[in-house]
Design brief:
Elements: E1 2-10, E2 23-25, E3 35-38, H1 39-43, E4 49-57, H2 65-79, E5 87-95, H3 106-119, E6 126-130, E7 133-137
Length: about 140
């Protein structure tokens, strides 16, 4: 999977407090964004709203990154009831081969990954698995 990460800072103070979460998932076929992280809530910072959004595409899927980013920012502005004048800054990043792991032999895969991480001096304290995706919190 390819990840297109959109980072946006909005000058709408207090908006993140409307969402009592560190992140939320979007299940809407008209929105390409899968997950939105509210970094203000994660870090306990108040002021400008700091948002990180994730769009996933298969590695073999043709994609127009600029169009996806433009639409993603538009969707975020609609979600947070803001407009383009509220944008303090925005950027995006494309990452190939992100972390989704198939569910076949999951316990074996987790054990292998944990061992490899420990060999690098990285020790996991929690493995969170949901919808076939494994996140390591270190």
């Amino acid at each position: 999977m390819n990840l297109i990460q959109i980072n946006i800072v909005l000058k709408t103070e207090g908006t993140s407090q409307l969402f009592n979460a560190d992140w939320f998932y979007i299940y809407d076929e008209n929105i390409d964004i899968s997950r939105v992280s509210l970094l203000n809530n994660v870090r306990g910072v108040f002021g400008n709203l700091i948002v990180q959004a994730e769009i996933f595409r298969r590695n073999d899927e043709l994609k127009d990154v600029q169009s996806l980013v433009k639409k993603g920012i538009s969707d975020l502005l609609r979600i947070f009831q803001c407009n383009e004048y509220d944008i303090v800054s925005s950027s995006h990043l494309e990452v190939e081969h992100t972390y989704p792991v198939p569910l076949i032999d999951t316990p074996k895969i987790i054990s292998t990954l944990k061992n490899e991480l420990e060999n690098l001096g990285i020790f996991t304290f929690l493995v969170f698995m949901e919808i076939g995706i494994i996140h390591f919190l270190i």
